[in-house]
Design brief:
By secondary structure, the protein is an all-alpha fold. The protein is 58% helix and 0% strand. The chain has 2 domains: 115 residues, no CATH class; 197 residues, no CATH class. The radius of gyration is 21 Å and the shape is globular.
Length: 363
């Protein structure tokens, strides 16, 4: 059995440092974990992990296409009332639930239902819905396809999102502060000058890799879906843009085609109807794609693409574990130790629990 304990500990350290810099946790999941641990104690809070939250938010947690539960049972709990009361003025319970669904990955991307779709340069409403939800610009999307092709583009969706994150940083940070902030906007320009993988330097790829890892370990707070879901939705956009040889897994109305779309355990080797699937389900599909061996090509020009493919392994452990509510629980436990509201022994119990959940059986 292979465990990600070292990576997990590293992730906790960085998340902890990020969280400790704030006077109070900002995300709904962080607020929930803090209140549950404080009010219920370790034993009771350990019953409220990833599976429990899925059962509270999704009508059918086993289905990739599950609708959301309008009023989860926990909304009657006193700790939930404390969560809502801790939110900025003007933020009601409905807003808190919507934000929680986005954070947990319980929302979908049906065009015209979950995502407002216009042209946006994506040529297809399903592709547009994924990309818009991911916050991925059309020019980055199409250039990734031009340089890498469909299969590589969806496997390298993390690097497409890295370019998007870098562009967002360049836009947000004044130019005179970018150098001191470690922002190299020229990476975007160099990427757009590339016409094949070998034109992209190893330095630039490593820079994007660090940028994405940092984004995964320091979750951004605010509107929109978390970075792991953004990356998965970007990959879904590349997949749907490719088309389906034996028929699409979705009907034109964005409902699953029962004769084509995989569901449940039977979908291991089949692509689900991605726009109808929850972000968590799309994330599971994407992680499975990253684990799947890529078709080898022998052309010399593909040597850089092979190096890029190897770098997928640097993001996969983080992408895989960041879907677990227990990771947030462990990070918050560390924060509570610092605030002297939780013992180190109790925090270690939660950390050990998260570590066990990130152990996988090698293929």
């Amino acid at each position: 059995m292979r465990c990600l304990a070292g990576v997990v500990h590293w992730a906790w350290t960085w998340i902890f440092l990020s969280a400790a810099a704030c006077a109070a946790p900002a995300s709904i999941m962080e607020r929930m974990q803090t209140q549950r641990i404080a009010q219920l104690g370790i034993d009771a809070s350990m019953e409220h992990g990833d599976a429990w939250l899925a059962s509270q938010l999704l009508e059918d947690p086993q289905s990739p296409y599950s609708a959301s539960i309008a009023q989860p049972g926990f909304t009657n709990e006193t700790w939930w009332a404390e969560v809502v009361a801790s939110l900025p003025e003007g933020t009601g319970e409905a807003d808190a639930l919507n934000q929680l669904r986005q954070e947990f990955g319980a929302t979908r991307a049906r065009p015209g239902v979950d995502v407002t779709v216009s042209e946006h340069g994506f040529r297809d409403s399903f592709v547009a819905a994924h990309a818009i939800k991911a916050g991925l610009d059309a020019d980055i999307f199409w250039h990734m396809l031009d340089v890498f092709g469909y299969e590589r583009a969806r496997r390298l969706a993390g690097y497409a999102m890295g370019l998007q994150l870098l562009r967002e940083q360049v836009t947000r940070v004044p130019i005179d502060r970018q150098l001191d902030s470690g922002i190299d906007g020229d990476v975007v320009a160099r990427f757009f000058r590339a016409t094949q993988p070998s034109h992209i330097s190893t330095r630039d790829i490593r820079y994007l890799n660090i940028l994405v890892q940092h984004g995964l370990l320091h979750p951004a707070r605010g509107p929109g879906i978390p970075l792991p879901w953004r990356i998965a939705r970007s990959a879904a956009a590349f997949r749907d843009a490719e088309g389906y040889l034996y028929g699409p897994p979705c009907r034109p109305d964005a409902t699953p085609n029962p004769t084509m779309a995989g569901s449940g355990a039977e979908s291991d080797l089949r692509t689900p109807c991605l726009v109808a699937a929850t972000d968590r389900a799309v994330h599971r599909w994407h992680v499975a794609e990253l684990r799947r061996p890529m078709i080898r090509e022998t052309h010399a020009k593909d040597s850089m693409a092979a190096k890029l493919g190897m770098l997928v392994g640097a993001l996969l452990p983080l992408l895989d574990m960041m879907a677990l509510a227990e990771i947030v629980e462990a990070a918050i436990a560390d924060d509570m130790v610092t605030a002297n509201t939780l013992s180190r022994a109790d925090a270690d119990i939660l950390s050990a629990r998260a570590t066990r959940l990130t152990c996988v059986i090698p293929e």
